């Protein structure tokens, strides 16, 4: 039972890392909290539902299509909202209000248009049945979600550390004003980061029906809570710290579900409080030498 | 001397507070100008306004004959203006990455050659090129800040308090590094409160309360009793001329 809890915890941890990755990227670059992140994930789940279940589009095309579509949507949303926020006196606080409002609008519109009933996608659509791993039987869909998550972590790493645009992104994360002084086009780099964050959330949404069992238009807020906990555990503003945050959250969640199932829903808040008390900068918080 | 940068009647501020009042300064080709002033005099504000980080409220900024006051920072950097702030580096990025980012508008091949030249100028950085800038000592970070600012082959390097947070030993090292850049024909505008930087200057301006109080050569500032008292802490009765090596820091 322990092996199963640890193994599935790690698999879910990788997936949760993907869930928080976009939110952390956006926070790292723009210092704004995108509380509509969970709703973009929900929209990704609807996209997967329509494409895979209704239109019988292949899962690979669905993942790529969702990413491209939501990346493209994220860019104009950035230009419409974020530069105005950044010019305000308190962009962080205002971002909470604005994106919470946007989240409520998205949820309400989706509920009105498509109803609040639960939707699911059968696992067989992804192909393959349960897979034996280390003596445990794991659903193929979970392994797919974990594999795609790992692939997107690697792609994000390559983007941030091995492209010039990625280095500019990290420069803005480190010192925004310093980045402006060397000529970085902060709006263009931030728009790309926002688009990537939106695209990553949508891909996480594609796998939400398989990982969560089902989805409704109201999953956005609980997903935001989970994402925020994961981001803070890893390190706020460090996208790759999200992987560690996701892994810790996933393993803790599965251990709780296995041994203390009635308290499992308390987990995000408990881990969040613990990390904030012990290490407020997150487990991979920045260390700078002050000479 | 050909004019490189000039401000005429420059005014700016924050919110309802005006900080600069009709500032006139100029820097020529291959010239080093030191802007002296104590804390709160408006040095950083002037630097930010020159770079376009603060909008000007009045007056004019000319760079290489062109009025650049309405241009965004990016366009000013593209025209050859480089800025080194007090921090000067991206702490989370490696030395290599910092230098690479300083050459955003430089073709790849030239950027690589330039990085090699800068590593020759600052050998200590070459040894630490894969290390995060945040792990460097204060002096090494300043060197990296200078290297990053020079990576894009600027015409004019504008520096905000390069001595800030440094021990006297590191200040001397920074001054030596800047002297080497100056010898290579680079123009420098250095905002400082440490008068040791006068040894680099061809000309000096003093800034007080957001206004230029003096403009002349380092010899002229030392010949003026009031300015000597203000910036060197020495009066008429003190024996001999103040030694630049013994010059005082005017930080308060």
The CATH topology of chain A is ABC transporter involved in vitamin B12 uptake, BtuC
* Beta-strand share of residues of chain A: under 5%
> Which structural class matches the secondary elements of chain B?
alpha/beta
Q: What would you say the CATH architecture of chain A is?
A: Orthogonal Bundle
CATH architectural category of the largest domain in chain B: 3-Layer(aba) Sandwich
Question: What separation lies between the terminal Cα atoms of chain B?
Answer: 35 Å
Mean pLDDT of chain B: 87
Mean pLDDT of chain A: 90
**Cross-sheet strand order for the largest sheet of chain B:** 6-7-8-3-9-10
Within the CATH hierarchy, at the fold level, what is the topology of the largest domain in chain B? Rossmann fold
Q: How many separate domains make up the residues of chain B?
A: 2
Q: Report the β-strand fraction of chain B as a percent range.
A: 25-35%
Percent range for helical residues of chain A?
over 70%
Tally of extended strands of chain B? 10
Cα shape of chain A:
globular
Low-confidence stretches of chain B: 235-252
Q: What is the helix tally of chain A?
A: 11
N→C terminal distance of chain A = 50 Å
Count of folded domains of chain A: 1
Structural class of chain A: mainly alpha
Query: In CATH, what is the class of chain A?
Result: Mainly Alpha
Q: Can you give a write-up of this model?
A:
The model of chain A is unreliable at 287-291 (pLDDT under 50). Chain A has a two-stranded antiparallel ribbon. Chain A contains eleven helices and two strands; from the N terminus they run ααααββααααααα. Chain A is mainly alpha-helical. Chain A is globular and about 55 Å long. In chain A, helix 1 (2-30) crosses helix 9 (220-234), helix 6 (164-174) crosses helix 8 (186-212) and helix 9 (220-234) runs parallel beside helix 11. By secondary structure, chain B is α/β, with parallel strands linked by helices. Chain B has two domains: 3-80 and 155-246, P-loop containing nucleotide triphosphate hydrolases (Rossmann fold), CATH 3.40.50; 91-154, no CATH class. Chain B is built from nine helices and ten strands. In chain B, strand 9 (203-208) and strand 10 form a beta hairpin. Chain B is globular, with a radius of gyration of 18 Å. Residues 235-252 of chain B have low confidence and may be disordered. Classes of the chains: A mainly alpha (291), B alpha/beta (252). The interface between A and B is medium-sized, with 22 and 32 residues.
């Amino acid at each position: 039972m322990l092996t199963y809890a640890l193994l599935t915890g790690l698999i879910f941890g990788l997936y949760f890392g993907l869930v928080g990755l976009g939110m952390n990227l956006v926070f790292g670059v723009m210092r704004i909290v995108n509380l509509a992140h969970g709703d973009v994930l929900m929209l990704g789940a609807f996209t997967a539902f329509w494409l895979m279940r209704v239109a019988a589009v292949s899962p690979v095309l669905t993942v790529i299509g969702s990413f491209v579509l939501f990346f493209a949507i994220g860019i104009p949303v950035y230009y419409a909202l974020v530069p105005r926020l950044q010019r305000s006196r308190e962009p962080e606080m205002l971002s909470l209000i604005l994106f919470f409002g946007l989240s409520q609008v998205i949820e309400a519109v989706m509920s009105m248009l498509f109803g609040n009933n639960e939707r699911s996608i059968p696992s067989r659509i992804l192909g393959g049945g349960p897979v034996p791993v280390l003596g445990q039987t794991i659903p193929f869909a979970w392994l797919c979600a974990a594999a795609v998550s790992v692939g997107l972590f690697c792609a994000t790493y390559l983007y941030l550390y091995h492209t010039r645009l990625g280095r500019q992104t990290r420069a803005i994360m480190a010192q925004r004003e310093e980045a402006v002084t060397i000529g970085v086009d902060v709006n263009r780099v931030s728009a790309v980061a926002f688009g990537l964050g939106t695209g990553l959330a949508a891909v996480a949404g594609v796998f939400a029906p398989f990982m969560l069992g089902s989805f409704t238009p109201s999953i956005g807020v609980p997903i935001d809570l989970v994402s925020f906990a994961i981001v803070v555990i890893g390190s706020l503003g460090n996208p790759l710290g999200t992987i560690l945050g996701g892994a810790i959250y996933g393993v803790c969640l599965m251990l709780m579900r296995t041994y203390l199932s009635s308290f499992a829903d308390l987990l995000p808040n408990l881990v969040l409080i613990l990390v904030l008390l012990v290490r407020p900068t997150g487990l991979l918080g920045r260390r700078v030498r002050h000479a | 001397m050909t004019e490189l940068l000039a401000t005429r009647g420059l005014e700016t501020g924050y919110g309802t507070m005006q900080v600069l009042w009709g500032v006139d300064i100029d820097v020529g080709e291959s010239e080093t100008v030191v802007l002296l002033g104590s804390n709160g005099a408006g040095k950083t504000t002037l630097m930010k306004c020159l770079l376009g980080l603060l909008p000007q409220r009045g007056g004019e900024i000319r760079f290489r004959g062109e009025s650049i006051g309405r241009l965004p920072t990016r366009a000013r950097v593209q025209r050859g203006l480089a800025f080194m702030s007090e921090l000067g580096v991206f702490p989370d990025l490696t030395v290599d990455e910092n230098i690479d980012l300083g050459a955003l508008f430089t073709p790849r091949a030239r950027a690589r050659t330039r990085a090699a030249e800068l590593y020759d100028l600052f050998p200590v950085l070459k040894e630490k090129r894969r290390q995060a800038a945040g792990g460097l000592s204060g002096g090494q970070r300043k060197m990296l800040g200078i290297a990053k600012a020079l990576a894009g082959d600027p015409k004019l390097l504008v520096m905000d308090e390069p001595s800030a947070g440094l021990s006297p030993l590191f200040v001397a090292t920074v001054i030596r590094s800047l002297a080497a850049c100056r010898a290579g024909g680079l123009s420098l505008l250095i905002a400082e409160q440490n008068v040791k930087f006068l040894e680099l200057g061809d000309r000096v301006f003093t800034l007080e309360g957001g206004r230029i109080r003096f403009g002349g050569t380092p010899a002229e500032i030392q010949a003026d009793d009031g300015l000597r008292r203000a910036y060197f802490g020495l009066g008429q009765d003190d024996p001999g001329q103040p030694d630049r090596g013994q010059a005082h820091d005017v930080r308060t």
